[in-house]
DNA sequence: GGAAACTCTGAATGATGCTTCACTTCTTCC
DNA sequence: GGAAGAAGTGAAGCATCATTCAGAGTTTCC
């Protein structure tokens, strides 16, 4: 045994991998999946294109990792809010607001996660991601119905609608960024979401 | 002048172009934009790949034409329903149902129009298409508010939400086709849309 | 210092798929 | 029938990238 990675070396490699994922995420948020070539990503991380393959077996694998990390963070945050304190309607309102606020604060990434054209492997991840979002919303809607706060409805459909509606509302402002209107947009969006779920007016 | 196209020849060429667009639409509805290569489209129309360029200057131009035709039909149909007879809430309900029913009857095409990964030129058309959908819905919502049937709200946001919600609800069933549940799905979707716009329950 | 094992590099390779073009086939008109 | 001109063909050309690989540079350990 003439060579064995020292802990420091292992840490260095892991850091390089993390840096690669972080830089790739930034590139994707900036220019979208289709423009994020291996060369562009490698350049932004300050390494050669070939070095990407030291960390990932293919471009698709890197893309999936980028998507999973970013999407996972969002699902975790939303899950925390939706299962936090408060009655179901309050939690739903807060969840919508948190989801939308985070998306508006990092529009490029939100667009990449929600809607940007992507290779099939990422598309499959996106479907799963949306399914998880829907499951979270559907659960709160069900709790709202059980608590008598929301009318009878198919929670899955309402949840799908909420996911799609938020995505659609958020995607368009991507083109014309109006920083000022964020507050009004969030208020309208939340009100719309509560109506969509059938919550009585002026509940939040 | 030794050659001039006869009317019959002109008709034949136009028919060939129409056939090409129709076949391309079918291919796109079947396999999606990314799999619809020039060769595949030409094959399905029974012509050589090179002949496509007799009718369109590029693949992107053909794709845009395919999108515009199909999307235009949908916008026209929805526009007719939304501006037809009945009070605004009734029209909205009927519009949602027509939109959704047509999408469910041709899921492949609906997916291609609403969500499937596509080249940038088609993506730009899609944005415009969604804007037109939103404008139609927003107008009905505004009429509903003016008639005192709907509560005060930002019609554009509700319209965006309706577009996104329908798309999201429809895209998922694409994977698991359950023909039987169409009626229930439409009923739930319409109910959700009316709640979303703030229409009183049991209004349709 | 030096051998062994590993990481990194970046130009070459290879695959995919749009587009072109020299050629063939068809249509028009005298 | 035949010349002129257009449409149709499909294989070659070309561009774009992901991926590979032979060699250079590093790290480890005796």
UniProtKB/TrEMBL annotation, chains A, B:
Question: Does the record bear S-adenosyl-L-methionine in its keywords?
Answer: no
HTH tetR-type domain mapped to chain residues: 14-74
Q: Which Gene3D superfamilies match?
A: Homeodomain-like, Tetracycline Repressor, domain 2
What residues are annotated to bind DNA?
A: 37-56
Q: Which UniProt keywords apply?
A: DNA-binding
Name the InterPro entries on file. Homeodomain-like_sf, HTH-type_TetR-like_transc_reg, HTH_TetR, KstR2_TetR_C, Tet_transcr_reg_TetR-rel_C_sf
**PROSITE patterns with a match to the protein in the record:** HTH_TETR_2
Query: Short name of one Pfam family for this protein?
Result: TetR_C_24
Does this UniProt record's set of keywords contain Phosphoprotein? Answer: no
Which named protein is this? Answer: TetR/AcrR family transcriptional regulator
State the species of origin.
Answer: Streptomyces actuosus
């Amino acid at each position: 045994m003439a060579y064995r990675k020292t802990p420091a070396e292992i840490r260095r490699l892991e850091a390089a991998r993390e840096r690669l994922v972080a830089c790739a995420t930034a590139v994707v948020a900036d220019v979208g999946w289709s423009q994020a070539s291996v060369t562009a990503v490698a350049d932004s991380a300050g390494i050669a294109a070939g070095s990407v393959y030291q960390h990932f077996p293919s471009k698709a694998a890197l893309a999936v990792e980028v998507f999973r990390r970013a999407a996972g963070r969002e699902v975790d945050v939303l899950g925390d809010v939706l299962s936090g304190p408060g009655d179901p309607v309050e939690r739903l309102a807060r969840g919508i607001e948190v989801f939308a606020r985070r998306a508006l604060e990092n529009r490029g990434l939100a667009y990449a996660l929600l809607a940007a054209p992507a290779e099939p492997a990422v598309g499959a991840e996106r479907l799963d991601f949306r399914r998880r979002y829907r499951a979270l919303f559907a659960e709160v809607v069900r709790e709202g119905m059980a608590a008598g706060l929301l009318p009878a409805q198919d929670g899955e459909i309402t949840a799908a609608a909420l996911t799609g509606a938020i995505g659609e509302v958020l995607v368009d402002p991507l083109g014309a960024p109006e920083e000022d209107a964020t507050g009004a947009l969030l208020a309208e969006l939340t009100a719309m979401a509560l109506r969509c779920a059938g919550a009585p007016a002026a509940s939040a």
